[in-house]
Amino acid sequence: MGSFTKWLGAGLGFTLGGPIGAAIGFAVGSFVDGVSLEDIKGERKSLEERVGQNNGNANTNSGDFEMSLLVLASIVIKSDGKVDQRELDYVRNQFVSMYGKERANSAFKLFKGIIKKEVSARQVCIQIRTHMPHSSRLQLIHFLFGIAKADGFVIPSEIEEIKKIAGYLYINQNDFESIKAMFYDESDAAYKILEIAKEATDDEVKKAYRVMAKKYHPDKLQDLGPEHINGAQEKFQSIQSAYEKIKNERAM
């Protein structure tokens, strides 16, 4: 289990504490023999001493984003009263594509423990928004809609849970509706994605596209590492596709 402890110790910062840390500690203690949260914290401290730094667990590391995803994913998956295998498979496949098979296997082992623990969405989100920039929080919401739709459709209880999480993360209603529209093929989805009304002028459409392209540009997630850029590119592609659809409809 040495590599497992090293992986978590090296990758985590702020999520080693607070309600997310408690969920990780529960999962590790219950489902990973011979390893505790204190072992992981010790590995983190040892690493900081070796490299001569101490970030006070205040920054968002790649692993912090990963653990935040796992905890929030567990909340959304349970929101409809059952744990659907297709949703679990989606989480696993996404993690394999982002982190590679070995790291994904470790993460999923942890996830199976986290999903058995009741956690407060509000407390978890307060911890996340204190440490994580807005662009990264938008990416979390995008990922959660992907999970919710993994079984073929998004039901009202899942939408409500993600909406509640978005509110706790200080994601405004327009941003929430924009990301939601990326997962629905509705007649006005392109306009919702760009956060404008159908009655918008051509100039307003162009301006909205520039604003949204800047907001969702993958470069905003560079600090989280290359493994998280693919998801950002998906969002960016949705913005571009929405703009192209409106341009074609209007012959702009």
TrEMBL record:
CDD domains hit by this protein: DnaJ (cd06257), terB_like_DjlA (cd07316)
* InterPro entries per UniProt: DjlA_DnaK_co-chaperone (IPR050817), DjlA_N (IPR007791), DnaJ_domain (IPR001623), J_dom_sf (IPR036869), TerB-like (IPR029024)
- J domain residues: 189-251
List the residue ranges forming a coiled coil, or say none.
Answer: none
Q: Which Gene3D superfamilies match?
A: DnaJ domain, TerB-like
Q: PROSITE patterns annotated for this entry?
A: DNAJ_2 (PS50076)
- Pfam families from the entry? DnaJ, TerB
Taxonomy, superkingdom: Bacteria
According to UniProt, the name of this protein is Molecular chaperone DjlA
Q: Which organism was this protein described from? A: Polaribacter glomeratus
